[in-house]
Amino acid sequence: MNNLIIFSTFSLLVSLSHAIEFDFCVGDLSLPRGPQGYACKDPASITTDDFVYTGFRGERTTTNIFKNNVTLAFADAFPALNGLGISMARLDFGVGGVIPIHSHRTSEVIILTKGSIIAGFIDTTNTAYYRRLKVGDVMIFPQSMLHFQVNVGKTPATAFVSLNGANPAIQLTTTAIFASNLPADIVDQITLLSNEEVMRLKRIFGTA
Ligand SMILES: *[C@@H]1O[C@H](CO)[C@@H](O)[C@H](O)[C@H]1NC(C)=O
């Protein structure tokens, strides 16, 4: 009997500790972000505008070295996502444009809305899964896997992605290695690339 009471009390505490305390918690970007996200904006000041993100409108230019343009609707740009474990991004590719190999803290689902791309990921056994997508096709990149997209069409391409985190982050392998402050001799050693090639890439990213 005692065990039952203890068990029931424990279960009640566990369920209470998982209780949802509010309908939403639009992030207050004026306060620091903690491990669970931002503090909540005063509900009295929230309007429909908080729940609508208009940053995906319009055309994009693709003039960077990767011939891409990435528009993030993560919690920083769209604070209504705070605490909801979901976010989006728009990916634009010029002809020959790529999203270079990268990873997030989350999974990602992509839908191609314009053009033709090859999308893929590489798992921890070094198996690559990649496919040429047609408009309307959807592909999933499982949590934390390195993945990429390449415009293989003769026209610009556009895709939208959703990620199961409000602040999923992006870590691009190429820029992590060559645009960071890591010294060239260490980069040579940890990549097996020649020093000439490492210096060429560090110059491209302004770190040589
Ligand atoms: C993305 O496109 C917008 C609109 O053309 C432009 O203002 C912005 O500079 C572009 N960003 C990059 C990184 O090319």
From TrEMBL:
Single GO term (MF): manganese ion binding
Question: Gene3D superfamilies, from UniProt?
Answer: Jelly Rolls
Where does the protein end up? Answer: Secreted, Extracellular space, Apoplast
Tell me which UniProt keywords the record has, alphabetically.
Apoplast, Disulfide bond, Manganese, Metal-binding, Secreted, Signal
In this chain, oxalate is annotated as bound at: 104, 108
The scientific name of the source species is: Beta vulgaris subsp. vulgaris (Beet)
One family name in Pfam for this protein: Cupin_1
Q: Give the signal peptide range.
A: 1-19
Please name the SUPFAM superfamilies in this protein's record. Answer: RmlC-like cupins (SSF51182)
Q: Name one GO cellular component term.
A: apoplast
Keyword Manganese carried by entry: yes
Where in the numbering of this chain does the Cupin type-1 domain appear? 54-199
SMART domains per UniProt = Cupin_1
Disulfide connectivity for this sequence is 25-40
Question: ATP-binding among the record's keywords?
Answer: no
Binding locations of Mn(2+): 102, 104, 108, 147
Q: What is this protein called?
A: Germin-like protein
What family name appears in the similarity comment?
Answer: Belongs to the germin family.
